Amino acid sequence: MNYIKQSIPRDFSQQEELVNNVRNIINNIIENKDEALFQYNIKFDGNNRTDLRVSRAEIEEAYKLVEPSLIQDMEKAADNIRRFAEVQKNSIGAVDHFEVNQGVFLGHKIIPINSCCCYVPGGGYPLYSTALMLAIPAKVAGVKRIAACSPTMKGTEAIHPSTLVAMDIAGVDEIYALGGAHAIAAFSYGTEQIKPVDIIVGPGNQYVAEAKRQCYGQVGIDFVAGPSEVLIISESMGNAEFIAADILAQSEHDVQAKGILVTTDEGLGKQVLREVDNQLATLETQEKARIAWENNGEIILVDTIEEAYEISNEIAPEHLEIHVSDETKAMESLTNYGSLFIGENAAEVFGDYVSGTNHTLPTVRASRYTGGVYVGTFLKTCTYQKIDPSGISSIGQIAYNMAIGEGLYGHANAAKKRLK
């Protein structure tokens, strides 16, 4: 393995300060509730509103401020996301009356989580697509109370109109005008205006991610997300123009975003390096994308495609694109990724917006142990059992013996009473 371009190591020296700052915010929300929310809204967003829940009138007004063509595009994207979520839900089945031993019947039920908060970022861009990606699977799952929140536009009391419209299209029940770590704390512990939820989903900046980490246990979360990332594996047939465009699409998210190419072809790697520079020259978001690419971007040259798959599995990227001749072998070899994009036409941008898969995905190697947000994120698999007298005969003595072996005599007694 050799680097045609290598990233700069990241500096984590400020991590302790971040942890302490977020802890103080959470404690302030727990103690002072709405009053603390008002203070943070003013401090971080210049948002002076005291009625945090967005009214129906505000939502209707937002529709008037969004281009009808964009609303139609959102509705089409929502339809694709919804249809795929419905197929996924139908694939998650209950188990009923499985007789594991004579008279011992087991099963499980698929039960929707009762309430959720969809956190929709609103810092650099109005990420209305995230509202669709989070709330629609929750709706399909059958979540009874779907809340959502997003920071207001800087210096205003209003969430971006396109984000409000997307939340409404997605079926959100309650919308709140706040964001940041204080929003996570509010939906975890509750305030006068905000009733806590059972799970919080959605990406955000480092303060949001740290707040989710610290509040986990009090509330469920999808995962702790870090900077966005894409890894592209390509053999010599890869289209350098497409690859460069996909790397820059990722890089414009954030100065911490990461784009990586792993290739078996040195010529392609160098061509992509030149193409990134060419496209950056005319990219409207080049200021942010250039920093991300220069600091975090990588081009890795490998001897074999199998080595590329090993590197990818170790990195465990959020988005993984493959431009290879044997796609079947690639899919068998690749195991760690948030979402897979197969072939040069399956650009990450389509998954981000409209193809129907979810774009809320695990980052910083979390795809080693979890997938992205989907309808199953909002479902619980809860087991049950029913045992008749013949079941006591088949397993009762075993339970008694094992309890005695562990020294748990109360357990043993409970089994013994039934053995009589």
Automatic annotation (TrEMBL):
- PROSITE patterns registered for this protein in UniProt: HISOL_DEHYDROGENASE
Entry's EC annotation: 1.1.1.23
Instruction: Give one GO term, molecular function aspect.
Output: NAD binding
Q: Name one Pfam family in it.
A: Histidinol_dh
Q: How is the cofactor bound?
A: Binds 1 zinc ion per subunit.
> What UniProt keywords are attached to this protein's entry?
Metal-binding, Oxidoreductase, Zinc
SUPFAM superfamilies, per the entry: ALDH-like
Please tell me whether the keyword Metal-binding is annotated for this protein.
Answer: yes
Looking at its record, which EC class is this enzyme?
A: oxidoreductase
Any one GO cellular component localisation term in the record? cytosol
Please name the catalytic residues of this protein.
E318 (proton acceptor), H319 (proton acceptor)
Annotated InterPro entries: Ald_DH/histidinol_DH, Histidinol_DH_CS, Histidinol_DH_monofunct, Hstdl_DH
Tell me the residue numbers annotated for binding substrate.
Answer: S228, Q250, H253, H319, D352, E406, H411
Q: Which cofactor does it need?
A: Zn(2+)
Show the CDD domains listed in the entry.
Histidinol_dh
Record-level GO BP terms: L-histidine biosynthetic process
- Binding, Zn(2+): Q250, H253, D352, H411
Q: Does the keyword Zinc apply?
A: yes
Q: Which Gene3D superfamilies match?
A: 1.20.5.1300, Nitrogenase molybdenum iron protein domain (3.40.50.1980)
The similarity annotation says:
Belongs to the histidinol dehydrogenase family.
NCBIfam families documented for this protein: hisD (TIGR00069)
Q: What is this protein called?
A: Histidinol dehydrogenase
**Natural source organism:** Clostridium aminobutyricum
